């Protein structure tokens, strides 16, 4: 999958490079654009790194309704503030910040009025609602900004703003207590972070790989049952619907399946599986910028770090293909 360079006219103002998708299902284009100015309540970031996430396929393939094209993907963005919009007083130029999946809320829907911004009816998502981090400069609303610790490198911090916060937040809201068994289903971009966070939370961690090469090694349901305790599963992959259904039987009494892999396919679980042992299923999506800051601080304190492969912005198509292949170890990050 090669990126194409779209024809552009003369650039008369300061310009920047972006990797854009021209239409649903289109190939990446590396183009020059005029640098945007931030409007009121917004800032412009000089992007230093942007993670390449499986959810970027929603923009690439046009499977999220209402996306306006051309669109620049990317919702794991780390950079420094380059310019402040009118009315911005609590952030400053040169400050190191990030933007994750939660790219702003409407502040008017019932969820937002109750402070449940994560479930805002009109949630803004970078790379979907507005141009994301596959570019040298990006504009974002102040309610999306995350303060990034200096001890984390750009490439380390970026994946923590989606893959990291999703696993961290799902685990800390799962109800599991230190000493409980937590199985991480799928050791990919999210799973390898889930294992680290679960270990630092004091859980007894069971890692379950995917693929036929793992099938002959052990029976995961039996392994979970032998592990004992009030087990919970953290389902990483969107390719694991059938495995999740089978492994649901491996949950202990009052166990919970936390689903964090985005997919449109169903998970089949019978009422008997739910009722027997009082088991539950819960979906979890990322979190607010405050949750991202919790994730970053916890990672900073405990040494949790993503394993990353880096690519330059000009190779966005190659980076995306690498991520989609499932062979990356374990997160792919664009660096500027």
Structure description:
- By secondary structure, this protein is an alpha/beta fold.
- It has two domains: 15-148 and 287-335, Medium-chain alcohol dehydrogenases, catalytic domain (Quinone Oxidoreductase, Chain A, domain 1, Alpha-Beta Complex), CATH 3.90.180; 166-283, Rossmann fold (3-Layer(aba) Sandwich).
- Helix content is 25%, strand content 22%.
- The strands form three sheets. Strands 3, 4, 5, 6, 7, 13 and 14 form a seven-stranded mixed β-sheet that branches. It has a five-stranded parallel β-sheet with strand order 9-8-10-11-12, sandwiched between helices. A two-stranded antiparallel ribbon has the order 1-2.
- Helix 7 links the parallel strand 10 and strand 11.
- The longest helix has 19 residues, at 154-172.
Report the mean per-residue pLDDT as an integer: 88
Distance between the termini: 20 Å
Q: Could you give the count of β-strands?
A: 14
Reported for the largest beta sheet, the result is: 7 strands, mixed
CATH C-level class of the largest domain: Alpha Beta
